[in-house]
Design goal:
The protein is α/β, with parallel strands linked by helices and about 260 residues long. About 40% of the residues lie in helices and about 20% in strands. The strands form 3 sheets. A 6-stranded parallel sheet has the order 7-6-3-8-9-10, sandwiched between helices. It has a 3-stranded antiparallel sheet with strand order 2-1-11, with no helix packed on it.
Length: about 260
């Protein structure tokens, strides 16, 4: 086992479960372009039916729209940070359905909008790792830790994002929201990841950048819940976190 320490807390662990967006990669480096594309294409679908986006459409995805129309920030407690793709699709489907489009057709059209953005984001977005990510993953593997990803994104796109960053090979499992019945903040992802990597929840640490990550880890009974906040959006750690860090070099690992 490895002694993992962060802040004033430490625990003996055999593995680490990482959130993806905001934890392994800088959130808006991937999702900024994607959100602009989704909202643009959704507006086109609404216009076909004589409708339009709400006056403040950022809430649909949990993003903050700047005066020039660009999206460079997100709501750390909003849908994109803590929800699942299916939940955001549901919100957008309701808006199109309100224009008179039957629900099934609205769902089909909105799903196509999201899938189109997913297909293009790998080419259009410049995905940037969180500072120190690769060096930390190297340290973990050198000490024999087993690593996995637990993300509110779907498994397929998540695999592609990790591949593009060149870090997929570090992880023995990738668990997406579509792999479990209940996503974050429920414990299902941790439990499934632990089954796949052959460990118990109390033998792993969770590292994530959202309240949902911390609540998931606590509900699953993990050994240590570490909240990472490179953007310095939080002054204090969420209540469910055991420790808060700003960078990976603040985590101690000792065999």
């Amino acid at each position: 086992m490895v002694q993992l320490s962060a802040g004033e807390r430490s625990a003996r662990v055999r593995g680490i479960l990482f959130d993806k967006d905001g934890t392994l990669l800088q959130f808006m480096s991937l999702w900024g372009w994607w959100a602009e594309k989704v909202l643009h294409d959704l507006e086109q679908e609404l216009k076909k039916e004589g409708g339009s986006l709400p006056e403040q459409p950022g809430y649909i995805l949990g993003v903050i729209i700047e005066e020039d129309g660009s999206i460079r920030r997100h709501d750390r407690q909003g849908a994109l940070a803590m929800g699942s793709p299916s939940q955001m699709i549901g919100i957008a489907t309701y808006l199109l359905h309100r224009t008179g489009v039957p629900w099934n057709e609205a769902l089909r059209r909105v799903t196509a909008v999201f899938e189109n953005a997913n297909e293009q984001v790998l080419e259009q977005a410049n995905i940037v790792p969180i500072t120190g990510t690769v060096a930390f993953l190297d340290r973990c593997k050198a000490l024999g830790l087993t690593l996995a990803v637990v993300t509110a994104d779907d498994k397929g796109p998540s695999e592609q994002h990790l591949e593009k960053m060149g870090i997929r090979h570090y992880f023995d499992a990738v668990i997406g929201d579509d792999c479990v019945e209940r996503g974050k903040p429920f414990p299902d992802m941790v439990e499934l990841a632990c089954r796949e990597i052959g460990l118990k929840p109390d033998e792993v640490a969770v590292i994530g950048d959202s309240i949902g990550d911390m609540e998931m880890g606590r509900s699953a009974g993990v050994a240590l819940n570490i909240f990472i906040d490179e953007e310095r959006a939080f002054t204090d750690a969420p209540a469910a976190a055991d420790a808060m860090i700003r960078a990976y070099d603040e985590i101690g690992l000792q065999s």
